Amino acid sequence: MAKKALGKGLGAIIQHPAEATELVVNVPVDKIKANIYQPRKKFDNERFKELVDSIREKGILNPVTVRKAGGGYELIAGERRYRAAKTLKMDKILAIVRTANNEESLELALIENLQREDLNPIEEAEGYKSLMDNFGLTQQLVAQRVGKNRATVANILRILSLPAKVKNYIEQGELSFGHAKVLLGVNGAQRQIEICQKAVSSGISVRELEKLLLPESEKPPAKKKETRGFSQAKRIEDQLQHLLGTKVTLKDRGSKGKIEIEYYSLNDLDRILEYFKVKGDSAF
Predict the structure, then answer these.
(1) End-to-end CA distance of the chain
(2) Cross-strand bridge partners of residue 251
(3) Which of 1.10.1130.10, 3.90.550.10, 3.90.1530.10, 3.90.226.10 is the CATH number of 10-115?
(4) Quick one: average pLDDT of 68-89?
(5) For residues 135 and 82, is the Cβ–Cβ distance under 8 A?
(6) Which of 34-43, 45-54, 91-100 shows the highest mean pLDDT?
(7) 129-138: long-range contacts at Cβ-Cβ below 8 A with a sequence spacing of 24 or more?
(8) Which residue of 26, 66, 104, 255 has the smallest Cβ count within 10 Å?
(9) How many CB atoms lie within 10 A of CB 52?
């Protein structure tokens, strides 16, 4: 499912727009180096192949963003398009050349990628952490930069405290951010891993995982299996009581059970037996 864009655009990142200039030109692919702050670590091979096929047929419709660096260029945004161009052995790629200092360049790279639809929760959390670690931003400032509230950013950052095995499942898309939030409430790394693996192997939903972890005292009582509806059993009892003129109790135990017929004297017993054409003897 595609995620909604994160809100504020890249213009909100540059505090002094007048100092930044842009050119759209064809740049030699071999003159571009990758951005070391690229937050995306996982690339879907099938989707990448589709992108390569599309670019082969129609070319690159949206330019990448770069800045001049070390006699060449450094990529700011457009990692997949850049990789596709290299795969196709293209000589040049259409690029927006932005004038920006180191801090602006790194911020732009992180924010632009956070606004893309396909960052997994771990990559998103690491992107926020990188903004905080490299530029000294608080959670509140990070939230303002990406157009989210501070509580959302704080919750996403918390998943980085999960064990590596759990984070790997999240990166692979086998656990959702919702599952991760539930696992954060489990004490102990080993217990988190065990529950995580159980959730993955059984494919349970977030709601099912929440129920699984409820304390026994808070779990709703299990409903008794009823093989015969209460109203049906009562109707049978009423009919038998009417026929026999005495109290009858039906005790249903699944595929078996019993019927109790009460009698109040030996004569009463003879009367009931006679109804069933059973020869009785009140003197037994």
Answers:
(1) 79
(2) 258
(3) 3.90.1530.10
(4) 87
(5) no
(6) 91-100
(7) 129/157, 129/160, 130/37, 130/39, 131/107, 134/37, 134/106, 135/103, 135/106, 135/107
(8) 255
(9) 17
Do residues 132 and 101 lie in contact, with contact meaning Cβ atoms separated by under 8 Å? no
Q: Are 69 and 97 in contact (CB under 8 A)?
A: no
Catalytic positions are 79
Q: How confident is the model at residue 117 (pLDDT cuts 50, 70, 90)?
A: low
Per DSSP, the three-state class of 12 is helix
pTM score, whole prediction:
0.58
Q: With CA atoms as reference, report the closest residue to 166 among 215, 213, 122.
A: 122
Which residue ranges make up each domain of the chain? 10-115, 120-161, 163-218, 230-275
- pLDDT for residue 145: 77
For residue 259, give every residue at least 6 positions away whose Cβ sits within 8 Å of its Cβ, in sequence order, or none: 240, 248, 249, 250, 251
- How many C-beta atoms lie closer than 10 Å to residue 212's C-beta? 14
